[in-house]
From TrEMBL:
Keyword Nucleotide-binding tagged: no
Organism listed in the record: Streptacidiphilus jeojiensis
PANTHER family: ARABINOSE-BINDING PROTEIN-RELATED, DIACETYLCHITOBIOSE BINDING PROTEIN DASA
Key word Phosphoprotein present: no
Annotated Pfam families: SBP_bac_1 (PF01547)
UniProt-recorded name of the protein: Extracellular solute-binding protein
Keywords: Signal
Amino acid sequence: MKRKIAVAAALASVLTAAACSSSSTAGSSKQATLSTDGKGKTINVWLMQDAQKGWPGVVDAAKKQFTAETGANVNIQWQTWTNYSTKLDTALLSGNAPDALELGNTQTAKYIAANSFVDLTSVKDKFDNSSSWLDSLAASGQSADHTKTYAIPYYAGARIMIYRKDLFAAAGVTTPPTTLDELTADLTKVKAANSKVPNFSALYLPGKNWYTAVSFGAGTYGVNNVIAKSDGSKFTGTLTDPTFIQGIQTWDTLQKNFSSGGTTVDETTQDALMAKGNIAAIIGNGWEVGSVTDPKTGDPSLASKLGTIAVPGTTAGQPTPAFLGGSDLAVPTHAANPGLGAEFLRIFTNTAQQTALAKFAIPNNKTLLPTYEAVSDVNKAAGAAANGKTWFIPNSQFWSQASDEVALQTAFSAIAAGGDPTAALTTAQTTIIGDLNGG
């Protein structure tokens, strides 16, 4: 762990030095401006190929509007997620950063801590629908204490419940559950109706799927400060808060009563397993419907038999909080044209562009969720999840997939196998807080 902390701290230090201009105070980021003075200029923007393949028309419309309003041209440089962090680090360190860029919302904290992005707080209200940005997607672009905004929400993804409508109907369940109590009652019926099916799971909950497990804890604890909270200088843990533990016990009860096996595995194989026919429901991303029914790796005959809903919560209409993955947009501190870069992001995320984007992905704000939900039943479920309470990992450059996520996987695997929730989460919390505080 200490080696990982040392490497992260060193990178943050180097990036900070590269990001701070000669006229700025050391350790602070430039304040944003929005510029329309672009005659004769060309800005460089890094976007992922997801947009190139999925919604190129949105990008083209934003480029056209930007050029009309500023006189500047836009050079889109399409990126892939593979080794993207390394490429971005290199660009920032060499002073060759683009004028605006996209990055995954779990990557953002490192660059915020290193003062690598322009502080957009002062112009946030100039961005359409900023008052209704998706809670957790917006949080991913903020400082650790959530007082400043350095990255703009772009689009999101949310986990939902994917279930076999035919198996539920055969068990006498024809109306989707709207609360956890109803879900438990329905799963009990589905389990009983399939008691002779080997290794049957009415709801498959693999022990290492920490995203789903934490969601149940967030349902009683609250959206903010899930896993850990910061006062601006130090993190303290919330995994052992009694209300969080209460939610985890709900997850544990569902796992033990309705999930067969899987206590030591994660969710990566659940789509293929569901396609085999002995799983009635899973919790996963909306795109996993296509994976379950894939002709090569799944069972296409299930296409008409799958239903989707937001994971029910304790109260009808209030789903269990979902983790929001997705992308953010930012302006590097040493961009050649930071004002124009910020202006492009403003246009790229305006109501017109986000309305068009909503046909393909969850938009960055709650105002436009109905447009997204109208496209399909899967979108309706994911939109309901995104519109409810959501959560995100702690905003820290020291959050580690190799350390902190493994600590959570280990804890929930132990709980699923019969371990004490408080003891397992105490161990995980010790690792996580040690990391987050740079220890």
